[in-house]
Every structure is written in C-alpha cells, then in structure tokens.
Design brief:
Layout: H1 2-24, H2 28-59, H3 63-74
Helix pairs in contact: 1-2, 2-3
Length: 76
C-alpha cells in the first residue's frame, strides 16, 4: 500500500497547488486543467485500491466483503 500512499500524497500536493492558484487568481483554464489532473489521479488511485480489494476478497472467497464493496461503489 506504500504506492497508494505515495499517490495520495501527490494528489494532496496537487490540491495544495490548486488552492494557491485560486488564491493568486490564476487563469481559469489553468485551474480547470489542474482540477482535472487531480481528479484523474484520485480516480486512478481509487481504481487501484478497488481492484486490489476485490482481488483479495475473491481469492479468499469472501462474498460478503465483495457484496459490501459493490454496494459502496453503487452508492455514488
């Protein structure tokens, strides 16, 4: 999970950068681009964690955990 933590720290840095950009009144298109990059990085990290958790549950034949994960995903 160290790679996930590293990814989340990078996303945190992107969010901090976004805050600075907004505070400085940066150009809107630059802010939107940075938002999209942070969102994509977070989405990719989520997909990685989801994939790992589902694989782990499937390898243990843990249908209850799989069901719980699916319900959480569907809640969006």
């Amino acid at each position: 999970m160290e790679d996930v933590i590293l990814r989340l720290k990078k996303v945190g840095g992107q969010v901090e950068g976004l805050i600075r950009m907004i505070e400085k009144g940066e150009e809107c298109s630059k802010i939107i681009t940075q938002f999209q990059a942070a969102k994509a990085a977070l989405d990719n990290t989520f997909s990685l964690v989801l994939d790992r958790n589902l694989r782990e549950c499937m390898s243990r034949n843990d249908s209850k955990s799989i069901e719980t994960i699916i319900k959480l995903i569907a809640r969006k």
